[in-house]
Amino acid sequence: MWLRRIVGGMISGSGGEPVGGGTEFTAEGVAAVLRKACETAGLDADGAELLRLGSNAVYRLASLPIIVRIARDPSVLPEMERAVGVARWLQMVDFPATRVPAGIAQPVVVRGLVVTFWESVQEREEYATVGELADLLRRLHWLEEPTSLGLPYFNPMAKLSASLDGLNAVSEEDRSFLEERAAKLAKEYDRLDFVLPFGMIHGDASIGNILRHRDGHAVLIDLDGFALAPREWDLIQTALFYDRYGWHTQAGYAEFVHRYGFDLMNWPGYETLADLRELMMVAWLGHQVGVSERSAAEFARRVRSLRTGEGREEWSPF
User: Fold this and answer.
1) Are 100 and 119 spatial neighbours (Cβ–Cβ below 8 Å)?
2) Strand, coil or helix: what is 119?
3) Which residue from 19, 22, 29, 296 has the fewest beta carbons nearer than 10 Å?
4) DSSP of 20-77
């Protein structure tokens, strides 16, 4: 269920419009970027396998257990510089997370696109459990990050506002509805009284971002969302996926709560935080409407649920 679905050689939501320095984000366009980036890093790109093509082009090299990630959005350079720094620091403190290869200066910018290199966790994509996610989050939240990482303060309302501003493919009626909902949630969010300590978070902590390493242990991946925020943000997706959509079992969620040591659903601000995280998910999907019929159908289903308060059990994970 959690595997990212590739449709017709592209992950749903991908398109071939020019990005960066005029490079088309197609299999052919990013292949040229891959070759140049590997040449710069001293790696062999021959036989590399394209795993997915969406907001990122993701390759697995044949010559070494290395994953190459090419970002569609050229503006992510600061985020990826920070992600590489986070990965190196997490390795230094022996925290189980995706690693960057030693001796490679990165990110690399090729034709305006940002390229990063990561050690392959294993040959196939296998997700770990929500219990292991809880263990890693509890351990992560105990760490005190060095100021040298330069982690930003996470502002969910600014992130949501930017996402809604770019919804050009949805109807004006739907966009107005989502904007009105966001304005209401902004007021509710300002009144929240967070109870967990403020500090470093993963930023997108869900079952989709914890993989099984080839040696058996679980590792966190996708480190570009690390930020400073209330720790409740790292718990909301697991609670939301169980409570509203049934994507986790009751036993699975109970295990998550037991191993982390806090049940977010018992916190008075849960519903507001869940509504906000949910709206961010819907807005993200709205960006795929113009290029994927499947995404457009799912977006319509989700907006209808927000309007009526019903049908969330019919949502499909993306």
Assistant:
1) yes
2) strand
3) 22
4) TTTEE-SHHHHHHHHHHHHHHHT---TT-EEEEESSEEEEE-SSSSEEEEEES-GGGH
DSSP codes of every residue in 262-283: --GGGSTTHHHHHHHHHHHHHH
What sign has the CA pseudo-torsion 216, 126, 256, 118?
positive
Average pLDDT over residues 283-290: 89
Under DSSP, is residue 19 helix (H, G, I), strand (E, B) or coil? strand
Tokens of 120: 């392959």
Cβ neighbours for 142, distance < 8 A, ≥ 6 positions apart: none
pLDDT number for residue 3: 35
Question: Cα–Cα distance between 234 and 271 in angstroms, integer?
Answer: 15
Does the predicted model carry a pTM greater than 0.70? Answer: yes
Share the mean pLDDT of the chain. 91
Report the alpha-carbon distance of residue 248 to residue 162 in Å, rounded: 30
pLDDT bin (cut points 50, 70, 90) of residue 26 is confident
- 35-39's contacts with Cβ under 8 Å and 24+ in sequence apart are 36/110, 36/111, 37/68, 37/70, 37/108, 37/110, 37/115, 38/68
- Strand duo 66-71 + 108-110: pairing: unpaired
Hey, is 188 helix, strand or coil?
Answer: helix
Summarised one tens digit per residue, pLDDT across range 51-102 is: 988 778 999 999 999 999 999 888 999 999 999 999 999 999 999 999 999 9
Amino acid at 99: R
Residues 6+ apart with CB under 8 A from 245: 312, 313, 315, 317
The helix/strand/coil state of 79 is helix
